[in-house]
Amino acid sequence: MTRAEICVVACAEAWRGDGAILAGFAGLIPQLGARLAQRTFAPELLVTDGEATLLRNGEPEGWLPYRAVFAMVAAGTRHAMMGASQLDRFGNQNISCVGEWERPRSQLLCVRGAPGNTVNHPVSYWIPRHSPRVFVDRVDMVSGVGHDRNAYEIRRVVTDLAVLDFATPDRSMRLRSVHPGVRVDDVVEATGFPLTIPRDVPRTREPTDAERALIREQLDPAGRREREIR
């Protein structure tokens, strides 16, 4: 069992109980998580190849043109797992620029689909490198809105260290679980704002033998997942 496989399972769990909705993802590990969920506990989940082909057990099942995705976004029938260059305690996301707006130090992706995603349907985040540079007290630009700006639902944040959620009275970020081998203090030190820490923080669920076999033998036999985790 590797840290990458733990993260694949943690991403899969984000779609548990969603029903027949479209899983959106940015990054290999969330893609593997969505495909794992579909093949195990969420057979009704809609999964694409990352472009326009709907897959069922890895085989083409249907066609989803790009224009149809906008209808699913507007109807709230998608749960996307996006990335973030910065995230704050309420789930506000920045993928646009780092530094002052008038003269940023780095120009990034612009806002892309983040505003529409975060106001129309559930959103989670995948962060492959948990650090204070990503988890900041205040994002430099709001690309996707957080709970303090009336997001639809920011559900979970999966990182290489932990799983976080927003199950707090003010819907700010909470430590949900730590991955095997990670201490609570490791997560606290890597976060640039105070987290809500439950009295007992469980370990993130490990893959079952069947899940591990699916990941290694069918979903990602080339082991590309290991390159996404430091």
TrEMBL record:
InterPro entries in the record: CoA_trans_fam_I (IPR004165), NagB/RpiA_transferase-like (IPR037171)
Pfam families, per the entry: CoA_trans
Any one GO molecular function term: CoA-transferase activity
Segments traversing the membrane: none
Transferase found in the keyword field: yes
Keywords: Transferase
Domain of life: Bacteria
Similarity annotation: Belongs to the 3-oxoacid CoA-transferase subunit B family.
PANTHER family according to UniProt: ACETATE COA-TRANSFERASE YDIF, CHOLESTEROL RING-CLEAVING HYDROLASE IPDB SUBUNIT
Protein name (database record): CoA-transferase
Organism: Actinoplanes utahensis
